[in-house]
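It would be a great kindness if you could assist me with a short task in structural biology. The full record is reproduced below for your convenience:
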Amino acid sequence: MLPFNPESLVKAYWAMRGGTLSQKAENAYGSDFVRKAQQVSASLGIPLDWLLAAIAWETTDFKASGPPWPVNKGDGGGGLIGFTPIKGHAAEFKGPVAQLDLVEQYYRKWMTTLKITTFKSPDDLYLIVRGPYAIGKSDSFNMGAGLTKKDVARIYKTYLAKQGVIAG
């Protein structure tokens, strides 16, 4: 008898309900995007699903495309991870595949600044996008828009479970 693997079961279930994050990313941005995302995630030492989940969240499930990229009216961000502000940013006129190099540079910059050697969870990885200074802070840390770090983590974990990245 094969060992029970709940993570595989969750991914299989969500794959039947609309596809995995890799499939969704490929449908939206192409196979070159997924190959490049695999390289970036390997370089950062994280699972591909963690990176794709952060990008999917910021692009409304890979629906945002560019250039030109839609601009978030709240913070002026745009692109794969909501580069803020997108206007005048190197990502402004780059497509999804080319932006992945900028995504890696962004994560590396914050890893160095915050002395992070490895990400412990997909929500820690996402916090670098949402509010890097929340890393290592208490759950009551103010993330803006009336949300605490705990609120952001709860909302994002619900999203991750729906995407089959973590067990719900």
